[in-house]
Write a structure and sequence with these properties.
By secondary structure, the protein is of the alpha+beta class. It folds into two domains: 49 residues; 102 residues, Rieske [2Fe-2S] iron-sulphur domain (Rieske Iron-sulfur Protein), CATH 2.102.10. A six-stranded antiparallel beta sheet has the order 1-10-9-4-3-2, with no helix packed on it. Strands 5-6-7-8 form a four-stranded antiparallel beta sheet, with no helix packed on it. The structure holds FE2/S2 (inorganic) cluster. The site of FE2/S2 (inorganic) cluster has 11 residues, from loops. FE2/S2 (inorganic) cluster binds next to loops.
Length: 186
């Protein structure tokens, strides 16, 4: 055996080391995710700003649409309609009816002294139904003990912070009529 020949199976340094200057193989993860840390930050900031603007625009459009819808609903509801004969609702009594649609519970109260008031029966807190309590001269919501003034619909106790929606009423030939949503003072 020639002492200057390498032993079989060990190879020369030129056979085992990568060729000097050959292009390195790109890592697989870099092919699939070709962002640098700086670029990634820019992309995230840009996208975040875009999403923020889109969300703000959508929210503003939704709020405007809801306001328009609420305004139209108040303006359009409440066609005049006969509710009940006044003789059926003695002073101090009440009468439940539906107004302006069959899905809208409402309450007519014949106040002590003779005045009539009508309101949506939906509590302005979370929408439970309010009842007339003649012995305490109040409209009461049993869900969270909300109390409303039966003359104005204003909340006087409990969590509600908005008045009940008032319905204009009038008596024509002994019949109580609902005339639409009433705004302003009674
Ligand atoms: S729903 Fe009427 S007080 Fe809460």
């Amino acid at each position: 055996m020639n002492p200057h020949e390498p032993e079989s199976g060990t190879g020369t340094p030129a056979e085992t080391a990568p060729e000097w200057g050959a292009p390195a193989e790109p890592e697989l993860w870099r092919e699939e995710f070709p962002y640098t840390a700086t670029g990634e930050e820019l992309v995230l900031r840009r996208d975040f700003t875009r999403y923020l603007l889109a969300a703000s625009g959508a929210f503003a459009a939704g709020a405007a649409g809801a306001a328009v819808w609420a305004g139209m609903r108040r303006a359009n509801v409440g066609e005049p309609r006969a509710v009940v004969d006044l003789a059926e609702v003695p002073e101090g009594g009440d009468h439940l009816f539906a107004y302006p649609t069959e899905q809208d519970p409402a309450i007519l109260v014949h106040l002590p002294g003779g005045e009539l008031r009508a309101f949506s029966q939906k509590c302005t807190h979370l929408g439970c139904v309010v009842f007339w309590q003649s012995d305490q001269d109040r409209l009461f919501c049993p869900c969270h003990e909300g109390v409303f003034d039966p003359r104005t619909g204003d909340p006087t106790a409990g969590p509600p912070d908005r008045p009940l929606e008032r319905i204009e009423v009038a008596v024509r030939d002994g019949v109580v009529w609902a005339l639409g949503a009433a705004d302003g003072e009674p």
